[in-house]
Amino acid sequence: MKRFLIVFVFITNIVILVYAQSNNYGNGNGTVIETMKDGDIIWIIRKHIQTVNIGDLSEDLNIYNKPVLGIGTVIGKLKINDNINITQVAEAIISNEYCYCLKISTENNINGWIYCGKYEYIFAQFKVPYFNNRWEIIENIKIGKKSWTIRKMIYQLVEVWEVLNIRDRPGLVETNVISKIIPPENGNSQVNLDVIEATEERETIDGRTDKWLKINYHGVVGWIFGGYASVERGGPKYYTPENIINFRLGWH
Fold first, then answer.
1. Structural domain count, the chain
2. CA distance 128 to 38
3. Are 122 and 181 in a shared domain?
4. Cys-Cys link to 125, which of 38, 49, 112, 155 (CB 3.0-4.6 A)?
5. Chain segment 38-82, per-residue pLDDT in tens
6. What's the half-sphere exposure (Cβ side, CA atoms, 13 Å) at 138?
7. Is the Cβ–Cβ distance between 188 and 225 less than 8 Å?
8. 78 touches 84 (CB < 8 A)
9. Is 111 helix (H, G, I), strand (E, B) or coil?
10. 109, HSE (Cβ side, Cα atoms, 13 Å)
11. Please, are residues 52 and 83 in contact by the beta-carbon 8 Å criterion?
12. What is the pLDDT of residues 98-128, one digit of tens each?
């Protein structure tokens, strides 16, 4: 895995943060394809394949000829309910703000870029798909007959309202219970948990299909089944790159 190399470049009061990206995405979505310099801006270009239906959450419906910061040469325009195919994500960090654009093609064969916003750090962790290499592959493990792809989670919080086992590894087979989550007040108050990692794969338990989540509960680090965890906020349950993009361009 590549290590980060961080260089601060000062140009006319603009700080450009240039960094070597980890590239542990198995040649799938998130894989760094190239870096592209446009004036003082350096864009990190990642592979990302996804189809999205444009909804009323989309703010800028312009299609640009290249990655932009909201101003550039417009080559087309999207409409609500248009279906688009995404092929790449472009990221840049300018003056501690995180920007990203999506390379798309439309049903009318227009190929270009759409601007998805510029966010301060506190918001970028929830709104930028590959913030801090979100969803990179940490490891691949095999337990019994099941294989699990373990992915990195960023600022993912969930709530648990019932007594729940914590296991040493994901899954019910050939794993051990190492502790329990016990909500206070007999289940009338939730336990808030920070999710460190998650399985890419889902499992169905008691009619619930979900990921396994690696959490830290009072110093105990282990795995819980996500089907028994919930979130109160609007938007996607998990901050994965695909979910973030779909919510950014989709519907209320």
1. 2
2. 20
3. no
4. 155
5. 999 999 999 999 999 999 989 889 999 999 999 999 999 999 999
6. 15
7. no
8. yes
9. strand
10. 0
11. yes
12. 999 999 999 999 999 999 999 999 999 999 9
- To which residue do tokens 């590549």 refer? 2
Q: Which residue has the tokens 């542990």?
A: 24
Dihedral pair phi/psi, residue 121, rounded to 5°: -50, -45
Q: How many residues does the chain have?
A: 252
The rounded Cα 64 to chain-centroid distance in angstroms is 24
Provide the 10 A C-beta neighbour count for residue 1. 9
Q: What's the CATH code of the domain at 166? A: 2.30.30.40
Residue ending a domain, among 93, 108, 133, is 133
Secondary structure class of 72 (helix, strand, coil): coil
Helices of type H across the chain: 121-127, 241-249
Residues 66 and 126 both lie in one domain: yes
At 134-151, the pLDDT tens digits run 999 999 999 999 999 999
Can you read off the two tokens belonging to residue 92? 């840049």
